[in-house]
Amino acid sequence: MQQDGSVLLEKECPEHGHSSVPVWRGRIDYREWRGDLPETPDSLRLDCPNCAGICGEHQQGTCCALLEVTRLCELNCRFCFADGSMPEPELSDLKADVDRILELGGRPLIQFSGGEPTMRGDLPELIAYAAEKGAPYTQVNSNGIRLAEDEGYVKALADAGLSFVFMQFDGVDDRVYKTLRGRPLLETKLKAIEMCGRYNVGVTLVPTVVRGVNDGQIGDIIRLAGALSPAVRGVHFQPVSYFGRYPDTPGGDERYTLDELLAALRDQAGVMPENILQSRCDHPLCGFHGSFIALPGGELVPLSKRGGARAACGVTTAKQNRDYIGSRWKRGPVSEQESASAAVDITSLDDFIKYSKTRGFTISAMAFQDAMNLDIERLRRCSLHVYKDGVLMPFCARYLTPMEESARDAIR
Q1: Using CA atoms, how far apart are residues 385 and 190, in angstroms rounded to an integer?
Q2: 167 with 204: CB under 8 angstroms?
Q3: How many Cβ atoms sit within 10 Å of the Cβ of residue 2?
Q4: What domains are defined for the chain?
Q5: Residues 335-372, buried b or exposed e (16+ Cβ, 10 A)?
Q6: Please, what is the angle between helix 151-160 and helix 123-132, to 10°?
Q7: pTM
Q8: For residue range 208-253, what is the model confidence (pLDDT) as tens digits?
Q9: Are the C-beta atoms of residues 77 and 182 closer than 8 Å to each other?
Q10: pLDDT tens digits along 251-262
């Protein structure tokens, strides 16, 4: 339902009654952003959340495949989609999982996740195995703690062929980390970035955006990330979703929507919405991306510009999306990076081409879904898949957490 520029997702359940959750608050024009993507007809039977794997009605291939390698972690975060327990997998089993992912997913980018994947001492061997078997890119989703404290481990990851690190990075002061992660971590994060930069492993910063905690630091995060280029390749924002572990049942006012993030980028960082593109691989309400050059000092020069309503999913294939991600998040050879440390003159065509690679910077976002705002139309277009029990499944279906009775009451 649309109301004064806002969009509410309304659901009616014979058992639980009516619910309404805000998914768009009118900061950016909804119709222009959504574009000409056709709505899913009510007559179409959709079983996406109930399928054991990717259902026959799914509309997108696998861009990225996430593999959980551990549930161990040094932290006990307030928000964590991976909350749960499982036996610690053997390395041989994980290698078999990699083989199966490459078979099912058409050689996708493989994300090694957890828990905290760097808790495994044999992770470099697993990354090397994935590269040997033909994974085009490998990624580690990490809190950065071991990366900051164990230089030999970082070197081993780099030598194994790790493409890039997705690093939890929620803010620019320790108040944020104490609130969300339970301890001060800013200096640890900065040290981890330094270590990865030393071994030429690209880092993308990943803030979980929580209203009232760090939504006022969107611009500060962008400025810091730009200043840390080329070691930092971009920022990937994730507005908080309520699955796995979370402290309280959310009300509608606690939701942080994608268009609010776009407005915050404009107001806090001067990043204009027209330089940010809707997802053309997943559903446009799932995410966005924008390409930039980060000049020395952190100034961002936009490379992308939105022109017209081109949000229809399927325009970009999973492979095209994977190639874009890989080319933007992975660092080039060291010699190129060294040349990028000199004065930058992007008025020269040769320098522009060179620095668009060596000092490339990406601002992106993914708005995950939970039981309260799950939209089948979005879910069936998902290209981020999770491997479990021999099959790939959409990320939000894999981590979907049942609502408690109190959660249903809170959103009515």
Answers
A1: 30
A2: yes
A3: 11
A4: 2-411 (3.20.20.70)
A5: ebbeebeeebeeeeeebeebbbbbbbbbbbbbbbbbbb
A6: 10
A7: 0.92
A8: 999 999 999 999 999 999 999 999 999 999 999 998 888 887 888 9
A9: yes
A10: 889 999 999 999
